[in-house]
Amino acid sequence: MVDINANMPDPPCSPIQFHTEPQQIASHCEQWTARLVAIVDQICQRTENHTFDNTILPFIEWEKIGLREQRVLGFYATSSANSALRDESRKASKTMEKIEGDLFQEKEFYAAFCAVQKEKELLDPEYQFYMNRLRENFEKNGLTIVDKEKQARFFEISKDLKELISEAMANHDADTTGTWFTRQQLDGLPASYFEARVTKEQDEAVGKVDPKYWVTAKEPDLLPIKKFATSPETRKHASILKGQRAPGNIDLYPRIFALRDEAAKLLRHRNHAALETHYKTTKSPENVLSMLDNLQKKFTPKMQDLRTKYLALKKVDPQTECLSPEERSTIYAWDQAYYDRIMTDADKGYRQEDLMEYFPLDHIIAEHFKTFQRLFSIRIERYQPRLNETWHPEVSMYTVWDAQNSTNSFIGWLYIDPYPRTGKYQHFGHYALNPGSIGPTGARLHPASVIMMNMQSPSTTTPSLLIHRHVQRLFHELGHAMHSLLSLTKTAALHMPSWDRDFTEAIGMMFESFLSSPKHMRAISCHYSYLNEDYKAAWLASHHGKTQPERQIPIKWLEGDGGKHDVFNQLTRIWHAKFDMAIHMPETPESLHHENLVRFFTESHSAITGLANLTLSPTPPSGNGGQNIDRWGYEHAYTGFRAIVAGYGAGYYTYMLSQVIAHDLFDVGFAGFVGGGEKDSKEVGGGENRATGMRFRELVLGVGGRQAPADTLKSFLGREVSGNAFGREYGV
What are phi and psi for residue 75, nearest 5 degrees? Predict the structure, then answer.
């Protein structure tokens, strides 16, 4: 990790104090509600002479503290190890969301806003942009609906949706889907997979003792099985297990989709997809689908070529000899990662489990920090938390400082929560826990960012090791953290451009592009046996007769493939995006029935990726007291698709659009300094690259969400966004 720098001054503010008792949540939620109600009452009681300063500015000032309190109170639901604290956090979130929803459906508040807007005051550009976003918020919350009965129905739907979405998120966070696999079933996985994993002994009546290992439906557990398990049956079961997540959402998701459709129509839009795209640069669902269709056409031939190569490998795989002729001549969804890994290993001359050994988590975090420090002239220092300054003992904490000059001014706080636990958010993620802003005295209110991960815990002989994709995901989420920490806005609500996800995601994706450079990947790598003598001794003991590997990855392992092995991931994103659009522009109410959603999710995956899937029961069997149930006879995979109800409804396509933006930003700003070419000899952060990094910090990260993303991008690129860099990367 980055060492503590004794020369750094103490931070000018205390970090967030995290609650440890459930009753604290309810008490603080009541205080939050009382302060918000008081501010809104004050605004609504004014009957004349409405100005920005006396009507809107008080609300902006409240947000600077209120948004932080709201986010922290809701944060425990996906982070705390205390189930009672998680429950109280969910209750508080529901209460605050209801109050906030009522606020933007408050007619007197809307009337006050309209009175200010009518005055047409000449405002600071950030405040004018804030007013535009506030107007959109009122519109999307139904205050422009003229018919009183329709408006009342819209308000009722809004309330129901908040309840249903909150319950669905709770189901995701509390999901414990998992099963036992024997050691034999998991043959092929690296030794590190089995360390620190829950085990039990198989019944000796079977004839031999074979330890069983508990495998959850979380990505860090399933992805290694898909890549390394030699048994096709095991890989199939892992794929089905993923499709059994969050069974409680079987009843909730169809209701959410149907209510969204009804609400959109009340707002005079054709459907929810039309509503959401109306406020985005894409403007219509048809434009989105056209973009996705064009990309699918370009990637499909490449996937067909890959599938042919996978099939050739499968036909000579001795593990498939027990399969039927039809199964052996078919590439299923659970075959792709396994044969792609074998093909990649053959192309590059290494095994991916060997590659993982060069990516120990703590070392990679430190190296990512170095890149940010050099590019943006900042310092990231390890901070030793005191009582209640984190929410879990495994969380690491950092202070971030501005190193542009000798003053070393404080920027903000960064937290990293690396390992899985019950009740925790199950994926990678970034939380802008405390949005930065300018306080009433003119002093900076410092931001705080959290990185959530679910990496395998270290053992006594091996640190937590990352696959290449997780190295990228970590840099992606840290990129979001840099966006949050380096944003400089007056208003807390515009601290991040959260309403425009294509732009927000593009920033994280741009940082992933640094890792396409063999030079950069080699520079940040370190074989874990060099971290300390104990790891070295353990590695040598488990690799009899072998010498210690090179300290850094052999450069020949890192030679590029033009995005060849990412084609499947691109088509998977297109599939998710098309499913998301389809359910939010339903042709008939029946298309949103659970059975139809399950079938469409599976069939559309096969149609877009070209990989075969099984047709299983759409619901878990019931009865018989749980006896004689076919564990592998059902799945309802779409209920585990968290994003479509967690902020990306009719917006998942932004992941594809974000890639186009990300590649353009990287190509214009950074490719020459970390990729090939004559500038390749320059270190990341040296000379011109530091100047480019500082320009990116000022024109992109520093702007936050205080202006339209198109304006931000044009100021850095010097032109409109181009898809040329994305096309070159993938040969499309």
Answer: -70, -35
Rounded Cα–Cα distance for residues 721 and 504 (Å): 15
Cα–Cα distance, 312 to 314 (Å, whole number): 6
* Alpha-carbon 474 to chain mean position: 10
Q: Which of 219, 641, 199, 245 is nearest to 456 (CA)?
A: 219
pLDDT for 310: 96
Instruction: Please give the model's pTM, rounded to 2 decimal places.
Output: 0.86
pLDDT of residue 609: 96
Looking at the domain assignment, is residue 328 inside a domain?
Answer: no
DSSP 493-555: TTSS-TT-HHHHHHHHHHHHHGGG-HHHHHHH---GGGT-HHHHHHHHHHSTTPPPPPSS--G
Helices (H), 8-56: 22-45
Residue 225 and residue 87 in one domain: no
Q: Look up the domain containing 191 and give its range.
A: 178-242
Tell me how far apart the alpha carbons of residues 501 and 74 are, in angstroms, rounded to a whole number.
Answer: 21
CA-to-CA separations, 470 to 254, 382, 602, in angstroms, rounded? 32, 22, 26
Q: Identify the bridge partners of residue 200 per DSSP, sorted by sequence position.
A: 212
Question: Which H or E element spans position 433?
Answer: strand 429-434
As a whole number of angstroms, the distance between CA 223 and CA 356 comes to 13
The residues, ordered by sequence, that sit 6+ positions from 238 with a Cβ below 8 Å of its Cβ are 215, 222, 225, 226, 229, 334
Query: What is the full DSSP assignment across 171-240?
Result: HHHT---EEEEETTTTTTS-GGGTTT--EEEPPGGGSS--EEEEEESSHHHHHHHHHH---HHHHHHHHH
474 vs 515: CA distance, rounded Å = 11
Say yes or no: 430 and 540 in one domain.
yes
What confidence score (pLDDT) does residue 426 get? 80
The verdict on 389 and 445 lying in the same domain is yes
Contact 607, 212 (CB under 8 A): no
The pair phi, psi for residue 179, each rounded to 5°, is -160, 170
The ranges of the chain with pLDDT < 70 are 1-8, 196, 201-209, 407, 560-565, 622-629, 672-688
Say if 662 falls within a structural domain.
Answer: yes
If one counts the domains in the chain, the total is 3
Q: Which of 197, 223, 242 is the last residue of a domain?
A: 242
The pLDDT tens digits of the residues spanning 498-536 come to 777 778 889 999 999 888 888 888 999 999 999 999 999
